[in-house]
Amino acid sequence: MSAEIETVVSEGAAGDAASGVADDVILSVNNVEVVFNEVILVLRGLNLKARRGKITALLGTNGAGKSTSLKAITNLLAMEDGEVTRGSIEYEGQNVTHVGPEKLVRQGIFLVMEGRGILQDMTVTENLRLGAYSRPKVNMKSEIERVYSYFPRLQERTGLAGYLSGGEQQMLAIGRALMAEPKLILMDEPSMGLSPRLVKEVFEIIQRLNKELGITILLVEQNAKMALKIADDAYIMENGKIVLDGSAEELMENEDVKEFYLGGGGERRSFKNLKSFKRRKRWL
Amino acid sequence: MNTELLLQLLVNGVIVGMLYGVVAMCFVLIYKSTQVVNFAQGEFLVLGGWVCLSLVVQMGLPFILAFIFTLVFMAIFGILVQQIILRPLIGEPIISVIMVTIGLSIFMQSLMNWIFGNDAKRFPDIFGSLSVITIGGLNVETAYVMSLVLSLLIMAVFYFFFRFTRHGLAMRATAFNQQIAQSLGISVKQTFAMAWAISALVSGVAGVVMGIVSAVSNSLAFVGIKVFPAVIVGGLDSIVGAVVGGLIIGVLENLAEFADGEYLHIGNLYTIAPFYVLIVILMIKPYGLFGTKDIERI
C-alpha cells in the first residue's frame, strides 16, 4: 500500500514538470528534511507545490509536521533550534531555502502563525502597523482603512489586542498579514479555538482574499472538511511526509480520507473492528 | 524640624531621581528586548562622561560638538559590545550572561582608570552651571534644572519612539515574542543592536549630565548599582516602572539623608537606604511595582 502511494506522489510531481505547469507554481518545496536539536528528524522529505492564485490545503493529524513545514518555508526554525538539512524551497523560481525571514516577508511570503501570533500588549492599530513593517514608505492610514473594509469589526476595538475575542484576534492576524501586501499567505490553523460559526466566517474571508486580491494561500488545517471545501489542491501529511495529494474534490471522494479525516465514510463499523482496521491501514 | 532643608532635599531627590530613572530605562530597555541584565550600565555612563570631558578639555572642542561626538561614539560602542561580547552568548544560561556583564563592568572600570586616571575632573564652567536660581524660595543650581529638563526630554523621546515610530514598535514586538517579530519581517539581530545602541547612547548622555552637575569620576559607576534597586522597585521589564523606581530611589535617598542628618546621626544612610528598600520591596512584591510575573528566573 505504502509503495503504491509513493509512486502516485512522484508521478504527480513529474507530471507537473512535464506539462509545463511549473511556471504556474509560486512555491515549491522539494524533498525538504528538517532536524531539530541536530537529532530529531521532523520533516522527512517533504514535497509540495502551491499554484499561483489558488488555495492549497495541507492536512494531517497532530504532530505530522504541518506547522514545522510552514516555519521551514518562512525560515523561522532557527529560534526553535530547527534546521533544514536537505532539500530546497523555491519561491517565484528562486531558491529561498536559507534566505532570512525578514527578506522573505519583503518578497511577499507572510505567515499567520498558529495561535494567531497577536502582540497582546499592543493596540489593534499598532498590530496592524507592524504588519506593514516591511513596507516603510507605505501610506499607513489608507492601508489600515483598507484592512478595516474587510474587517469592520476591528475598527471599533481601540484597546489592547490581548482583550479581543478569539475570532477578532484571528481577523486581526489576517488583517495584519494584508498590511504586508503579500503574494502568498501561509495560514497555520486559522480555525483553532473558534466556534463553528466563526470558523465559517474566517474561511469565507480567506476565500475572499484569494478571489478578490488574488493572494495565493497555503492553508494548514485540522478541520479537513472546511479546508477541503474551499481549497483547490490538497496534501495530506503524516509523520513528516506527504502521503496523499490531489485536487480537493479528489481527496474529498477518497475513501481513506473520508475514513480518517472527514469522519464516517462507508458503512458504520464497530469500534473493535475500526481499531484493527486502522492499525492495518496506516498511511505508511 | 527644618522644613526648608527637607524641601530642598526633596527637590534634589526628584531631580537626581529623574536621572536615575533615565539610566534605569536604559537598563530595562536592554533587559526587555534582549533578556540581558547589564551590570555594566554604570560604566557606560562613566564612559560617556569621560569621552565628552576629554574632548572638551584635551582636544578643546566646543561642547556641542563634543557632545554630538560622544553620542555617536556611545551608540557605536553599544553596538560593538552587543555584537562582539553578547551575540555569541545567545542561548547560553542567564547566569553566564550575568557573569559576562559583571566581567565587562570590571574590565571597563580598570580600562577607564588606566586611560582617564583616578581623579575626579570637572567640566569647565560653560553654562554658568554653578550659578543658582531661586524658585519659590528654593535654591537650585542651573545644572540641576538643566538635568531635569534633559531627563524629561529623554523620557518624552522614549515615549514617542516606542509609541509611534516603526522601529520603536518593532522593538516592542521583539520584546514580546521574537518569533512573532520575525514572522512580521523584523530583523531580531538589528533590533538587538539598536537596543544596545540606544541604551549606551542615553547612558552616555546621563554620564555627561552627571559630569556637569558634579564631576566625572570612575566612582560615578555607582549610579549603575543605585539604578538596580530602582529597576527592581519598578519591575524589571517596565519602562514606566523604571522611571517611577528612579524617582522613588532618588527621593528616598534624600529623605534618608535628612533623617540621618537631623535625627539619627548614623552617617552614610544616604548610600544604603535604597538597598533596604530593595529588600523590603522584594519581600512584599517580588515582581516590582509594575513588573510582570513571568520574569522570576532572575
From TrEMBL, chain A:
InterPro entries: AAA+_ATPase, ABC_transporter-like_ATP-bd, ABC_transporter-like_CS, BCAA_Transport_ATP-bd_LivF, P-loop_NTPase. SMART domains: AAA. The keyword Ribonucleoprotein does not apply. Residues 27-264 form the ABC transporter domain. It comes from the Bacteria. Keywords: Amino-acid transport, ATP-binding, Nucleotide-binding, Transport. It holds the Pfam family ABC_tran. One of its GO terms (biological process) is L-amino acid transport. GO terms for molecular function: ATP binding; ATP hydrolysis activity; branched-chain amino acid transmembrane transporter activity. Belongs to the ABC transporter superfamily. PANTHER family: ABC TRANSPORTER SUBSTRATE-BINDING PROTEIN, HIGH-AFFINITY BRANCHED-CHAIN AMINO ACID TRANSPORT ATP-BINDING PROTEIN LIVF. This is ATP-binding cassette domain-containing protein. It comes from Sneathiella chungangensis.
Automatic annotation (TrEMBL), chain B:
One of its GO terms (cellular component) is plasma membrane. It is found in: Cell membrane. Keywords: Amino-acid transport, Cell membrane, Membrane, Transmembrane, Transmembrane helix, Transport. One of its GO terms (molecular function) is transmembrane transporter activity. The keyword Membrane applies. It is a multi-pass membrane protein. GO terms for biological process: amino acid transport. The chain crosses the membrane at residues 6-30, 63-81, 93-116, 143-162, 192-215, 227-251, 263-284. This is Branched-chain amino acid ABC transporter permease. It comes from the Bacteria. Belongs to the binding-protein-dependent transport system permease family. LivHM subfamily. PANTHER family: ABC TRANSPORTER PERMEASE PROTEIN (PTHR11795:SF451), BRANCHED-CHAIN AMINO ACID TRANSPORT SYSTEM PERMEASE PROTEIN LIVH (PTHR11795).
